[in-house]
Amino acid sequence: MTVADELTPETPETESEEPIKQRKNGLYPGVSDELAESMKSGWADTELRDLEPIAQAAETAARRAALSARFPGERLVIPAGNLKTRSNDTDYPFRASVEYAYLTGNQTEDGVLVLEPNAEGHDATIYLLPRSDRENGEFWLSGQGELWVGRRHSLTEAAKLYGIPASDVRELADKLREATGPVRVVRGYDAGIEAALTDKVTAERDEELRVFLSEARLIKDEFEVGELQKAVDSTVRGFEDVVKVLDKAEATSERYIEGTFFLRARVEGNDVGYGTIAAAGPHACTLHWVRNDGPVRSGDLLLLDAGVETHTYYTADVTRTLPISGRFSEIQKKIYDAVYEAQEAGIAAVKPGGKYRDFHDAAQRVLAEKIVEWGLVEGPVERVLELGLQRRWTLHGTGHMLGMDVHDCAAARTETYVDATLEPGMVLTVEPGLYFQADDLAVPEEYRGIGVRIEDDILVTESGNRNLSDGLPRRSDEVEAWMAELKH
């Protein structure tokens, strides 16, 4: 049964209430007065009174304090976002905006964090939908009512959990329309909130807020590093799951691999952090192959790029290229070992005080040396790098920041990201690759259709770096031994 079968009570709505939506072709023509009255009473008190603050409450408070200090005297509005329709009356699973989740720890739709300026800084309020109303029947008649989609926290419960006073978000738009003084809002998540502020904000000032919140995530705190390690550890187990069922994938398709990893992500985390790339054979040469509908054949390579996202939204991003048969062929091993050597050079360049670009340059130099050595392009290596000729077969950058987004901190200024100096607490990927397209006549036939990428998640430490994903083997002989052990 679906909510479409239920209708609005026949009693008229007050002018201040929006009618509860009903489906055109529902099976019930209405709700009797007797049923409406029955549904109002006879329910136990389910208020949760012994709640403890969420694990990251201290960290989110510190993040809000840093935001307050950056924009004194200004009202700051950070929405979670709204549900998005998938088709007709079904919605996509909701994921709160990173900015909102980073500052609150809350993940519910329609939430808004507001920082109101005061003499000492700001007063924070989290605006949320309260529990669905029993008096007007919302809890059982609305598609988002408690009996249809589950219980929301009461505002009192939310205040305890997140350490922020909570108010009814349905009153917020009117408050914002009446607000005076400078205001900034994170755009792109809540059209209703933006409309209420349309005459009070500017694109330039709002972009400064977005950039600040992106750059704030460049350095991960202890809680974040712990969550990233959890994400990686689950991802390692997901890769092990895949290796154990490669025979079943051969009997079906890449979808079996995708589904196998997704099971681990949903059992141990919130979701996958991005669309899984389960690319077998020549599909490995398509950098973002997410159709995952191709055959899985013994003798080919499988490029698996996947990451578990934790319940707090931190995602791993790991890639391994595996011989489906369990053993690399000679040409596969040659290409794989070249990428491994490039990754080793890249990881070695990740250290505090080094430039962000260093790991990319180090890895690209190795790959350029290899393609010159193999006679695929004319040297010297310096010429190849200057002209970017290696990019025909490498194409992408060698890594990116990682965190609550798989490509985290994307709105940061260039000088604080790709042109910056590495600092302890930064987490980034190192992921060189070589991709020889099936129709590439510039390389010998034996190369064609082979794609290799190796990707790990690297934490910058005080003394160098730590590979968070070192639970998965990388060297070709170790990969073969690991696969053989898992298949027995």
Automatic annotation (TrEMBL):
Q: What EC designation does it have?
A: 3.4.11.9
- List cofactor names only: Mn(2+)
Q: Which UniProt keywords apply?
A: Aminopeptidase, Hydrolase, Manganese, Metal-binding, Protease
Would I find ATP-binding among this entry's keywords?
no
What is an example of a Pfam family matching this protein?
Answer: AMP_N
Instruction: Tell me if Zinc is a UniProt keyword of this record.
Output: no
Which reactions does this protein catalyse?
Release of any N-terminal amino acid, including proline, that is linked to proline, even from a dipeptide or tripeptide
Q: Where is this region: Disordered?
A: 1-28
Report which superkingdom the organism of origin falls in.
Bacteria
A molecular function (GO) held by this record is:
aminopeptidase activity
Where does the Aminopeptidase P N-terminal domain start and stop, copy by copy? Answer: 55-194
Q: Which PANTHER family match?
A: XAA-PRO AMINOPEPTIDASE 3 (PTHR43226:SF4)
The UniProt family comment states:
Belongs to the peptidase M24B family.
What is this protein's name? Xaa-Pro aminopeptidase
Organism whose genome encodes this protein: Streptomyces cylindrosporus
